């Protein structure tokens, strides 16, 4: 069943898009991560212009983040005060990211920037995840692991503008969560991802937040930064395809339900290793596409066309 995507300006199989949304939703539920960093490359692989894939994925993340936050809110796992400070940085970062996105789009380099960003971030994160998982499996569960302090005080904790965050039991500079939100906002705008695979480790190891509050607080901030990114992308760069976003959202919601059930059967290190291999495979595919000789060396386009 073919449907026409008005912004992407191409026809696609609706069942394929639903399947992609369901597959990434399943993986999100299985591994407990957002699927934005997988969905955008997959859309590029099937012919969706990278700029449209990024803008549309940001739109879809709003719905997914709202669903996640509601679940964490019921468990009282959201630090609204800290999330609000992150949001200030996120709004600034998103605005800067959308401006840079439009600039690269005008220069004709946005596709290259998106692909290089994904190759770098996915390759780095997957490599670190795979190394950590292999070490954990080799060490074995029989050996007792000595408890360690969640974080150590560094020069970062001596920064000014300190604030108290009672819910997270922290007394730190507001510049730290704002800075993390700023980086996350840029990633949302340029890569079409929530940035959770970078925000979550930063919130744990830099801020020293309790692990139970990290996911909910991160999603709370992501709702607003992705919402702003989707609005600005649609208004300024015209890269949000609502038809594509709706198909992905329907498939993602259904797939996540099955993935959550399947995830209970995997051990933590096994899940991380499988996810790392999958993310690395996507990064390698993007890198190969940048290097190999294309089938069509020349193409004719007009301004405004992908």
TrEMBL record:
The UniProt record lists the keyword Transmembrane: yes
- The answer to keyword Ribosomal protein applying to this record is no
Sorted keywords for this record are: Cell membrane, Membrane, Transmembrane, Transmembrane helix
Membrane topology for this entry? Multi-pass membrane protein
Main location group: membrane
Q: Name one GO cellular component term.
A: plasma membrane
Residues folding into a coiled coil are: none
Q: Where in the cell is it found?
A: Cell membrane; Membrane
Pfam families per record? TauE
The highest taxon in the source lineage is Bacteria
Mark the transmembrane ranges. Answer: 12-38, 44-70, 82-104, 110-131, 170-198, 204-232, 239-259, 271-292
State the similarity comment: Belongs to the 4-toluene sulfonate uptake permease (TSUP) (TC 2.A.102) family.
What is the protein name stated in its UniProt record? Probable membrane transporter protein
Q: Which organism is it from?
A: Aerophototrophica crusticola
Classification from the root reads: Bacteria, Pseudomonadati, Pseudomonadota, Alphaproteobacteria, Rhodospirillales
């Amino acid at each position: 069943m073919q449907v026409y995507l008005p912004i992407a300006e191409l026809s696609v199989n609706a069942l394929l898009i639903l399947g992609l949304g369901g597959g990434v939703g399943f993986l999100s539920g299985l591994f407990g991560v957002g699927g934005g960093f997988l969905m955008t490359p997959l859309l590029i692989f099937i012919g969706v212009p990278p700029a449209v894939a990024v803008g549309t994925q940001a739109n879809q993340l709003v719905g997914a983040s709202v669903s996640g936050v509601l679940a964490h809110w019921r468990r009282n796992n959201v630090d609204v005060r800290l999330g609000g400070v992150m949001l200030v940085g996120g709004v600034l970062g998103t605005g800067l990211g959308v401006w840079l996105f439009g600039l690269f789009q005008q220069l004709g380099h946005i596709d290259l920037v998106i692909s290089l960003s994904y190759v770098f971030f996915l390759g780095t994160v997957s490599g670190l995840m795979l190394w950590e998982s292999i070490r954990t499996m080799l060490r074995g569960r029989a050996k007792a692991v000595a408890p360690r302090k969640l974080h150590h005080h560094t020069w970062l904790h001596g920064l000014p503008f300190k604030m108290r965050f009672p819910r997270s039991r922290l007394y730190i500079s507001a510049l730290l969560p704002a800075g993390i939100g700023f980086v996350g906002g840029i990633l949302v705008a340029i890569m079409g991802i929530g940035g959770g695979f970078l925000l979550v480790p930063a919130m744990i190891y830099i801020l020293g937040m309790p692990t139970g509050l990290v996911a909910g607080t991160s999603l709370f901030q992501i709702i607003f930064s992705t919402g702003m990114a989707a609005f600005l992308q649609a208004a300024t760069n015209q890269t949000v395809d609502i038809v594509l976003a709706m198909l992905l959202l329907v498939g993602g919601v259904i797939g996540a339900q099955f993935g959550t059930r399947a995830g209970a059967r995997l051990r933590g290190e096994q899940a991380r290793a499988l996810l790392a291999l999958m993310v690395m495979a996507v990064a390698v595919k993007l890198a190969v596409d940048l290097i190999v000789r294309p089938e069509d060396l020349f193409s004719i386009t007009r301004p405004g066309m992908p």
